[in-house]
Amino acid sequence: MKKKMLGFLLAMCIAMALVPMAAFAEGNSKTSITTVDELLQFAKAVDQGEYDNKTDAVVSLDADLDLKGVAWTPIGSVFAADGTLQHYFSGKFYGNGHTISNLDFSENYGKTAYPSFGFFSEIYGAEISGLTIQGKVDVSNSGYVYFGAIAGVAADSKISDCVSDVSFTDTDKYINGTVALCGYAINSTIEYCQNKGDFSVMKDTSYFLMGGIAGLAENSTVQYCANTGDMTSWTPHTGGIVGQLYQGSKIINCYSTGKMVPLGHGTTNFGGIAGTVGAGTEIRHCYFAGEMDVSQYTATPPYKRLGGIAGNVSSGSGSPVFENNYFIETENVPACFKYQDAGTEKTLDFMKTEDFFNEITAAGGNYRFNPNGTPVLPAPKYAVSFVVTPAELANVVIKVNGQEVTNPVDLEAGTHTVEVSADNCKVFNSKMTITADTATHTQIVAMTYLPADYTKVDNLPQTGDTSNPALWIALLFVSGSAAVGTGVVTRKKKCNR
Fold first, then answer.
1. Mean pLDDT by 10 residues, the chain (497 residues)
2. Which end of the chain is more exposed for a tag (fewer CB within 10 A), N or C?
3. What pTM value is reported for the model?
4. Please, what are the domains in the chain?
């Protein structure tokens, strides 16, 4: 009986070591936004410099917000007299699939105080994800403005899984700048994003760049993005995805299905995917399947600055790369006047078939078959980290849907079967659901040790009386303290990861 008691106490020590020590957890610093007032407080904090160079800061939008009646001032909009940005957002903003609606940019758009305009004015070293912006912009007679529904300017940043549903209307010629989901992207990545807003610029402008996803992309990558908004434009550079693709930038696996209406006399660059393509840039695995309406286009065929893929190619050393691109068949509209092989003509009916899906994917495109239309983008993937406890386990193997994976692993949104094994532990089996909500991107797996074999404990030689209650209490206290210590260390390791 005394030996059985010893075995029981040892089992209790092991069990205590496996109990999560929530009281000792170290949580990441995070700002949660659930009301309009909290959003405005966050904007004020950015404008005061509290998020400058704070790349580890986390801000989470945890509710849909309606900004009706709020004259929007972009977040990070403190500029010096010479136009130099003073403060900006530089952390992680997780939209978690929520929508900010009725955002009216019109009142403050074009004011000299805001040369960069959008939900964010400018972001540096930031990550913006899972955010939908819905609203409108009605402008005329403004100065040069980088406008982007998500961000006017994004530098060294990443924008992912965001949606712009902002309409842009201009009826005056005195307007310059950009309009897009992101106005100007430099050294940045934009992926899994979509523009639904319609853009209309009805007069000839001196310098303006219009794109569904980016107005101007410099040394940046736009991938897995789509535009479904219509564009009626007389701007110098208009593209379904990017207005001007510049300095080594890339458009990969994107499509546009919005109606394109070029205006003017053929002096502007207008393309189904990109308006102007620079030297050393790339457009791969893209397609344009929107209507190209040239009824108001007064240029004389052959159109030298209008294309189903690219409107024009700027001069410079190095040729752009075009690969596996397709565009809708339209009379007198080539893939690109300067690069006739920039894309392949197809009928809209063919683009809606499985044969077209097979053709674009066989050559490297990554799309999902759509039985009701043209191919659609693949589901977004999220970096999912598995935190397996206790931390000291040996030979941990993680399988997702039957396949061994590295940790972290990129997973599509949805429900996945997860299996985890480790030495001396029961195999963990469960289904885990991954969504746009960042709370699902860290999965904690608590392993359970196999039942202990107490045979050797029972066969230990008796060395004396072990019935001293004080001795047992002391042993239990020491063991419990060790377990708590283990819990603290484990949690710290989790947080550090």
1. 45 41 42 97 96 94 96 90 88 96 91 90 96 93 89 97 96 87 98 97 89 98 98 96 96 98 95 96 98 96 97 85 97 96 98 98 97 95 92 95 94 93 95 87 94 61 52 46 40 33
2. N
3. 0.82
4. 2-25+380-496 (2.60.40.1120), 34-362 (2.160.20.110)
